[in-house]
Design brief:
single chain; mainly alpha; two-stranded antiparallel ribbon; 8 strands; about 70% helix; elongated; Anoctamin; membrane
Length: about 675
């Protein structure tokens, strides 16, 4: 019977596999895994039946994330259009572009750089207003609430899918990882690893991660050195167009170098994270996956955002002032922000890195690398075929031969990772780039179909795995959402000119407008106080320059404390700190309020679960009632039996009644 049962099970499994391959795969390709089906909803239930709950949850999460990007993209476009519409009426931009009231600025480098008029940076100032305007503050608050609502809606959708997929009472089983089992078998099977045995692996992990993070910071420092030295070299060029486009050239080339370094280090860090996790020898596959995700995310997070953090919070902060500049090397000054501020450069840095990663890493790599591997494997098999000259080999390869030529499935970690990094680009620095959700939406519309096609036709069909949630990825998303509130608060208060404009308008402006703001933010410097050997060799100015201007809040040279920080500096600094505290607490409160208002379990699912529990309780009560009746009947029969046993004279007179009174 057991053999027959197993045989029937095997036949049923083979039949189901054949039906699922013959029916589900073409249907999924036609309705889901084509770029022409981008406007259709994903068949999540069909995906779950063919690939299993774990992959089904991934595509459900990706679909919800892409759907939520639509309202954020619309709001981002409105914010950008607001900047375009108000650009012509922006008073600080007009003052910067006014050639009649030209401000003579101090040289940008020693000796080879001349004094220059602020009006020459008119285009940069006008472009900065597109992203540095009051609407970006509103958009930052909106995106923080958007992230909270997205996570709440995902919990609701996850609960709904778990209910319909019968995962509500599912407790995940522990599976051993094959490669880890191999590592353990190399040791004594009876010997258990203690914390002393694992300590060397942990120490190597910590040291390696710190080394990798230091390597990332070194790459950022190297690009910074490149920017400083290249700017100094181009400034002494004899070509006028080269000297006039120094900032644009240096910024563009440095961002491209950053992108290339990020792409290379991402691949290295992925392999290093896997090697370090295997060294720890985790006990279960789930533990292995969680530790791998944490290491890979930490390394790739630092790698992707380190250049952006440098531009946002460090560039231009430690420059010094004319006559007392800070030098990185002998003769190389620390780089300054553009006249319009660092926010415009932060926007350029963020947009190029984000778009470059999406285009190259998320799309070209996903299409090109599996295709090349498949082509290489096919060529290798054809050469082997010709050498063996197997006469029994069929001219038409079987389906399993074609499936074997596909790329093996390596897990969902790379798929989740690229979306989590993109989620960081959308939320962390959204105050500097409101169009980030738009580009993320366009990428994800392609990404959904690209991943679908890859799973259906480019990868071997993975084993189905039951999962009740997306695991540690939810905690990472929640952490990024909370961290984004702090980052955007500092971007608005420190990197943008929102707070200085606010302070000037309500504290220093004579008529409550922004007229005179540019003059208010520029300090005076007496050119006779320049250090010997740093003055411009040749000046194009016809009149002798006595005072030059530079962007800072410092006392003028004729004050009792020349070049010290002014009262305006401390007023702006205190306002910036107050804004960070107020913005952070306000957004955190609103996020907590949204979290409280949206229930984790949908109302219909909650009522259905309560109804099922009530039916289950009624069923058990009915069963217990039937058992109680049965017990009472047995008790009554026992009483009759005991009564019959006590009347011995009746039994002796009627022995045939024994069979009735005492049943067998």
């Amino acid at each position: 019977p057991n053999l027959t049962h197993l045989t029937l099970m095997g036949v049923g499994a083979s039949l189901y596999f054949k039906i699922s391959v013959d029916f589900f795969a073409p249907l999924l390709y036609q309705e889901w895994a084509r770029y022409g089906a981008f406007y259709k909803y994903q068949p999540i239930d069909l995906i779950r039946k063919y690939f299993g709950e774990k992959i089904g949850l991934y595509f459900a999460w990706l679909g919800l994330y892409t759907e939520f990007l639509i309202p954020s993209s619309v709001v981002g476009i409105i914010v950008f259009l607001y900047g375009c519409i108000t650009m012509e009426s922006d008073i600080p931009s007009k003052e910067m572009c006014d050639q009649e009231k030209a401000f003579t600025m101090c040289p940008l480098c020693d000796k080879s750089c001349d004094y220059w008029n602020l009006s020459t940076a008119c285009a940069t100032g006008r472009a900065s207003h597109l992203f540095d305007n009051p609407a970006t503050v509103f958009f930052s608050i909106f995106m923080a609430l958007w992230a909270t609502m997205f996570l709440e809606q995902w919990k609701r959708l996850q609960m709904r899918l778990g209910y319909f997929w019968d995962l509500t009472g599912f407790e995940e089983e522990e599976f051993s990882n094959a490669c880890l089992d191999l590592c353990v078998l190399q040791q004594d099977e009876k010997e258990k690893l203690t914390w002393r045995d694992r300590m060397p692996g942990y120490l190597v992990n910590v040291a390696s991660i710190l080394f990798m993070i230091t390597l990332t910071f070194s790459a950022v420092f190297g690009v910074t050195v490149y920017r400083i030295t290249t700017a100094a070299v181009l400034s002494i060029s004899k070509n006028e167009s080269t000297r006039s486009n120094v900032r644009v050239t240096v910024t563009a080339t440095a961002v491209i170098i950053n992108l290339v370094v990020i792409l290379i280090l991402d691949e290295i860090y992925g392999a290093v994270a896997k090697w370090l996790t295997e060294m720890e020898v985790p006990k279960t596959e789930k533990t292995f996956e969680e530790r791998l995700i944490l290491k890979a995310f930490l390394l790739k997070f630092v790698n992707s955002y380190a250049p952006i953090f440098y531009v946002a919070f460090f560039k231009g902060r430690f420059v010094g002032r004319p006559g007392s500049y800070v030098y990185m090397f002998d003769g190389y000054r620390m780089e300054e922000c553009a006249p319009g501020g660092c926010l415009m450069e932060l926007c350029i840095q963020l947009s190029i890195i984000m778009l470059g990663k999406q285009l190259i890493q998320n799309n070209l790599f996903e299409i090109g690398i599996p295709y090349l591997k498949k082509l290489f494997r096919k060529l290798k098999d054809e050469r082997t075929e010709k050498k063996e000259n197997d006469s029994n080999h069929s001219k038409h390869p079987q389906q399993w031969d074609l499936d074997y030529m596909l790329e093996p499935f390596t897990g969902l970690t790379p798929e989740y990772m690229e979306m989590i990094i993109q989620f960081g680009f959308v939320t962390l620095f959204v105050a500097s780039f409101p169009l980030a959700p738009v580009f993320a939406l366009l990428n994800n519309i392609i990404e959904v179909r690209l991943d679908a096609k890859k799973f259906v036709s480019e990868l071997r069909r993975p084993d189905t795995v039951r999962e009740k949630d997306i695991g540690i990825w939810y905690n990472i998303l929640s952490g990024i959402g909370k961290f984004s509130v702090i980052i955007n608060a500092f971007v608005i208060s420190v990197t943008s000119d929102f707070i200085p404009r606010l302070v000037y308008q309500y504290a220093y402006s004579q008529n409550g407008t922004m007229h005179g703001f540019i003059n208010h933010t520029l300090s005076y410097f007496n050119v006779s106080h320049l250090k010997a050997g740093t003055q411009p060799d040749i000046s194009q100015f016809e009149q002798e320059v006595i005072f030059c201007r530079y962007k800072d809040y410092r006392e003028p040279p004729w004050s009792p404390n020349p070049y010290e920080f002014s009262k305006q500096y401390w007023s702006v600094l205190s306002a910036r700190l107050a804004f960070v505290i107020l913005f952070q607490n306000l957004v955190m409160f609103l996020s907590a309020l949204v979290d409280w208002m949206i229930p984790d379990i949908p109302k219909d699912i909650s009522e259905q679960i309560k109804k099922e529990k009530s039916m289950l309780v009624d069923f058990f009560l009915k069963e217990e009632h039937e058992k109680l009746k049965l017990i009472e009947s047995f008790i009554m029969r026992d009483k009759h039996r005991n009564k019959g046993c006590s009347n011995q004279h009746i039994l002796s007179a009627h022995p045939e009644a024994l069979g009735i009174i005492v049943p067998s």
